[in-house]
């Protein structure tokens, strides 16, 4: 019989870089173009607001994960504090979240490859998916190594962008779009050129940019020293948000006025093209390609682990808890990869709309998962004050901040409902939850 326990093969450097990789992805490198078009420079404030809210959500998750030995993901937490139905719905919704995200990422891979080759989007999407599936079937340590190097490429790229931008600002460098200057932030209609409407509409893509921030919680079961590694990774999130999102967007908009950016292309590629460094645009396109591959890699990892956890708690078919000789949930990986391949089909059928559809659905479902974490933390504080009192990693300003963040999530959902572009996806998403409520009532036959 194959072993039924995941290996704790992720070291501190893996966890730290997984945390970074979880907060830098396709939503920043590609999706920020759409967000900038909607909000102009005020998109910086949108990233800051959502980033701060998610830091408090992560502190709540961190306290919960460390409150009890044996937690393998937040589905276990939801079952303890909100019941088995909530765990079932949250677990499957998280799987669905990452399926949608991984679909967006394979679609993005196709978009990036078209920068060099005039081939259909779905071809590189399928090639990338098969390659990542093969690597994930080997060992969890290999997943950690892949994410380590993928994330390192992202970090170096953004660091290089910021350093180059500072130099260009100091010398007043001239590009085809004008002078590199901090005045570009407000000289093209002000900080809020499209008013509060544009600012609020940008939140859909901004939320999508942060999906994966909770991946540290999924990796907890395979972390060698969770009591040290998880708090360390979570506490560094604010600095990462300030540096990788706020800092990167400020320098992008100083080099490149927001009016010059296109919603369908990466602002990072466009900006390095403007700087005039030979081959820079091609190099950055390669970087954002690896970023999309990284996010898809995270998607395969997280979806397979969530199916494994659901199966162990009899919330999913038993075959999903079967591990390979390398302690990897092989069946769960294969199923997730097959479903993600639908993203390649979408990029073939709806090449213009596919990315927007899957990112909206993903953002909505992630809001559900993050809300469940916050509500579980509120319940934990009320019912397990003994665990809270002895916690070495207490969530700050709780439970007040939990309600504030939940209110923000509610406001974002209202904006998605009002916006014409995101309304169809929002109205379709409840079908998923209705299906889960129905399946929960009849889940016994499904688990055989």
Walk across the major sheet and give the strand order: 1-2
Tell how many strands the DSSP assignment holds.
Answer: 2
CATH topology: Amino acid/polyamine transporter I
Compute the separation of the termini in Å.
18 Å
Give a short account of the largest sheet.
2 strands, antiparallel
Radius of gyration: 21 Å
Order of helix and strand elements from N to C terminus: HHHHHHHHEEHHHHHHHHHHHHHH
- Taken together, the total number of domains comes to 1
Q: Which CATH class is shown?
A: Mainly Alpha
Shape: globular
Unreliable segments (pLDDT under 50, ≥5 consecutive)? none
Number of continuous helical runs = 22
What fraction strand?
A: under 5%
CATH H level, superfamily name: Amino acid/polyamine transporter I
Would you tell me the overall average pLDDT?
A: 81
Please give the share of residues in helix. over 70%
What is the second-level CATH architecture? Up-down Bundle
- Helix/strand/pairing category: mainly alpha
